[in-house]
Amino acid sequence: MKVVKGIAIVIIALASIAAVVLIAINMKMLHSESGTMNAFIDRQDDRYAESQKKETEFIEDGAVIGDTYTIKSTKAISDAYVNGQDPSGLSEEDKKTYDLAVKTLDEATKGKNTLYEKELGVFEWLAKNVSHDADQSTRAVLVDEVLPQDTPYGVLTTKTAVCVGYATTFRLLMNMLGAEVHIPHNDSHSWDLVKLDDNEWYLTDIYSAASSGNGNIDYQYFNNNEITGSDRFDLSMMSNLPRANGKKYLYQVQTAQDVKDFYELPKYLKKAIKKKQNVLSLRFGTKPTEEEILMGTSVVESAQSRITENNTDLTSAYFTGVWCRDENDNFIFTIYIVNNADSSGRVDPNSPEAKKMRDALDKAFGTTSGYDPLATEDNTPKTETETYTYSSNEAA
């Protein structure tokens, strides 16, 4: 009987040991499986985070705008210029672009000293000399087969551009001047974000600034920050780019005149119109009241009505106003004056050339009482102006 009990005790002990061993093995397997599973989950999390990063990171070079135009790198060209390297090592097209860009910089920045002055020179040169007139759309398609209008080479050769062409050419020229530039963009448009020597960033859109097509420049698209440019730039597409918070080199600040009284504005506006200024920017010595600040838009609209009714020379002009503050927190009110009077013919009808051609046409075909873009007055009955709006999937 004792022997049987002893055997039973041994069996129970062995079973207990086996159970402990099995539990230990199971625990080890579970721990191993858990570790494997955790590692797998970690890898999946890393992959998801990376995919999210790729979805939200800003893509500049290689981005396609309007399913047609591609933002291409020009770093090799600007690096060669900045570093004083022999451009002979560049590709054939890049060498040609290099020469064109150097010539353009010489013209655009002649007599300019500061980086801001040079930037303004580049902006004005491109806005005045590079066109995207609606009546050149056919030519643009034909030219694009040989010289794309989305590259600095094509832009500086043909003097025509789409938005990508303006943006990449501005970036190249400013990079050659030592400035950092990004090209923000959405599905249908691109513009520039430039860093100046105050270490702040500014928004510039030369395509829109040159849109009048008559040599006039719309300066409301030059050097904005997120506040002054909120109505003109798609800030939603710039979340992964530096913030445009500059104040010192806002065009409004750089061109501001100091005045004491907000109610002097009409007098200054009249002077600006007589001098054919594009911009009137006034800095006030005392802080305007809340009512005066709110009055800004109304002042512009009220002036527009009076000028349109009483000044036939400016019936095709339009005005926009915007408030901003400079780096010293002074209030500045700016009125942009854009005159489209000559946009239809893009020729000054008062010029000797226009008069000479009118005389030649009259001699050959007789006079006309209809529309004549070379005439000083248009006797044609007024018709509705044809307008064109870019669709959301069209590259501007």
SSE inventory with pairings:
Layout: H1 2-56, E1 64-65, E2 69-70, H2 75-82, H3 92-108, H4 115-129, H5 137-144, H6 152-158, H7 163-176, E3 180-182, E4 192-195, E5 201-204, H8 206-209, H9 251-254, E6 257-259, H10 265-274, E7 279-284, H11 290-310, E8 317-325, E9 331-339, H12 352-365
Parallel strand pairs: 6-7
Antiparallel strand pairs: 1-2, 3-4, 4-5, 7-9, 8-9
Description of the structure:
This protein has about 400 residues and is of the alpha+beta class. Helices cover about 45% and strands about 10% of the residues. The chain contains 12 helices and 9 strands. The chain has helices at about 1-55, 75-80, 90-110, 115-130, 135-145, 150-160, 165-175, 205-210, 250-255, 265-275, 290-310, 350-365, and strands at about 65, 70, 180, 190-195, 200-205, 255-260, 280-285, 315-325, 330-340. The strands form 3 sheets. Strands 6-7-9-8 form a 4-stranded mixed sheet, with helices on one face. It has a 3-stranded antiparallel sheet with strand order 3-4-5, with helices on one face. The chain has a two-stranded antiparallel ribbon with strand order 1-2. A hairpin with a 5-residue loop joins strand 4 and strand 5. Helix 2 packs across helix 3 (about 90-110) and helix 6 (about 150-160) packs across helix 7 (about 165-175). Residues about 50-55, about 135-145, about 340-345 and about 380-395 have low confidence and may be disordered.
